[in-house]
């Protein structure tokens, strides 16, 4: 008398159901929340907060991870801040840079883009409104980072 001992004991229909459930579970895992490092300048904080709120209201699969920096790039605490930001980037699946007219000159945004790329993270730039700002951070231009509108962000992330 043999007994399989395994959890599967049904016929072919049960196997089909099991395979279907496995595929559905794999699809759900693929669509799991993306932990996104969000890079922006403090001048854009209110607009960034609105966009974050919109993402939550739309039950987005995005979880934004930012560490808002109010310190000057060359302050006494800059090395500590860079270390902490680098740790946040490590924990993220990718980096999204919110671009505006104020972003182009930010040394912190430049460094966050370069650090994200150094760590092998995908980087995507996003803007609000009808068109991107006239001036983008040079790090975005140099690395040929894709720039999309906020309304395109979710579909763009699905491709990544």
What does this structure look like?
- This protein has 160 residues and is an alpha/beta fold.
- It has one domain: 3-Layer(aba) Sandwich (Rossmann fold).
- The protein is 44% helix and 15% strand.
- The protein contains six helices and five strands.
- Strand 4, helix 5 and strand 5 form a beta-alpha-beta unit.
- The longest helix has 19 residues, at 12-30.
- It is globular, with a radius of gyration of 21 Å.
Structural class: alpha/beta
Task: Find the count of extended strands (DSSP E, 2+ residues).
Answer: 5
CATH topology (fold) name: Rossmann fold
Mean pLDDT: 80
Could you tell me the radius of gyration in angstroms? 21 Å
Count of the separate structural domains: 1
List the helices and strands and how they pair.
Layout: H1 12-30, E1 34-39, H2 45-57, E2 62-65, H3 78-91, E3 94-98, H4 107-118, E4 122-127, H5 138-142, E5 147-149, H6 153-159
What does this entry show, briefly?
The chain is built from 6 helices and 5 strands; from the N terminus they run H-E-H-E-H-E-H-E-H-E-H.
List keywords for this structure.
globular, alpha/beta, 160 residues, 5 strands
């Amino acid at each position: 008398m043999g007994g399989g001992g395994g959890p599967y004991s049904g016929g072919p229909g049960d196997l089909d159901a099991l395979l279907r459930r496995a595929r559905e579970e794999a699809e759900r895992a693929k669509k799991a929340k993306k932990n996104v490092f969000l890079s922006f300048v403090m001048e854009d904080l209110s607009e960034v907060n609105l966009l974050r709120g919109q993402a939550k209201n739309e039950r987005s699969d995005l979880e934004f991870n930012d560490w808002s920096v109010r310190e000057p790039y060359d302050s006494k605490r800059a090395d500590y801040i860079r270390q902490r930001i680098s740790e946040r980037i490590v924990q993220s699946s990718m980096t999204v840079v919110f671009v505006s007219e104020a972003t182009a000159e930010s040394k912190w945004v430049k460094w966050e883009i370069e650090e994200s790329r150094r760590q092998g993270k995908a980087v995507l730039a996003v803007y609000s409104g009808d068109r991107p700002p006239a001036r983008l951070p040079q790090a975005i231009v140099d690395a040929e980072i894709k720039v999309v509108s906020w309304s395109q962000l979710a579909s763009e992330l699905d491709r990544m």
